[in-house]
Design a protein that fits this description.
mainly beta; Neuraminidase; 47% strand; globular
Length: 257
């Protein structure tokens, strides 16, 4: 039987709680929280794996074998402008736009798909080793996560590996969806927790831990999956956050606790 992330969540969450999550009581990493400044509807059928805003377009990749797709919507209106479904058994994962190419990962299928960023039509596929989780584009290179505490850098044209960096602290984090922000940081969902890590991609230092646990109360989480999906809103200090099967996306700022 196919193993999805949801089936892993209980086991991993127990481990996270047992070890105190990201950092212990002596952890000096700055801690932030989310300040909600707005909400918007989110497709509750979307098992969100990748989220990115490029100009006026919101891109979203959703997972689950046989249900995976990628879509583009007008960020201001929410109108869907393009959509492409992935054939089973492909499990869609993170995505990012790098110039004239939209790259989309798959989870355990070892395939990255290069797409037209307007029509979302598939152009080519590239094989890679390991698992694909999150993806973003910064300073001429793709930044990829694989569910560990490591970020891998790839060429945006060929998808070849050009380097990597490992977190210098919080090495137990399972880096998932990524956002390469305007400040040069990489923001990463730490699956399956409600933490987002702000990372220096050049050194691997964790610059801050953002607690997003207050976005949805426990009573509203019945039947939902983990927080996943982070995208900076261009030209602002705000981010769009959502989760797998969540009915709502949140526009937030990251502020001191």
């Amino acid at each position: 039987m196919e193993r999805t992330r949801r089936s892993l969540a209980v086991t991993v969450l127990v481990a996270v709680l047992a070890t105190g999550g990201c950092g212990g009581s002596d952890d000096a990493t700055p801690r932030l929280k989310v300040q909600v400044v707005g909400t918007r509807p989110h497709d509750p059928r979307a098992f969100t794996e990748g989220l990115e805003i490029d100009g006026a377009t919101l891109y979203e990749s959703s997972g689950l074998a046989g249900q995976s797709n990628v879509r583009a919507t007008d960020f201001a209106t929410g109108t869907e402008t393009a959509r492409a479904d992935l054939p089973a058994p492909l499990f869609g994962e993170g995505l990012t736009r790098a110039g004239a190419t939209l790259w989309q990962l798959t989870w355990q299928d070892h395939i990255a798909i290069a797409r037209d960023p307007v029509t979302l039509a598939e152009r080519t596929r590239v094989a890679y080793d390991g698992e694909g989780w999150g993806l973003c584009f910064r300073a001429g290179r793709l930044v990829m996560s694989d569910g560990t505490g490591k970020l891998t850098f790839r060429d945006p044209g060929t998808f070849a590996i050009t380097g990597s960096v490992t977190l210098t602290s919080h090495q137990q984090a399972r880096l998932n969806e990524l956002d390469c922000a305007a400040d040069g940081s990489v923001y990463a969902n730490d699956w399956p927790t409600d933490n987002i890590l702000r990372i220096d991609p050049d050194t691997g230092a964790v610059l801050a831990i953002i607690d997003a646990s207050k976005l949805l109360p426990p009573t509203a989480r019945v039947g939902l999956d983990a927080l996943n999906g982070i995208a900076q809103i261009p030209g602002t200090d705000r981010f769009l956050l959502t989760g797998k099967l969540w009915p709502t996306s949140f526009e937030v700022r990251f502020v001191a606790e």
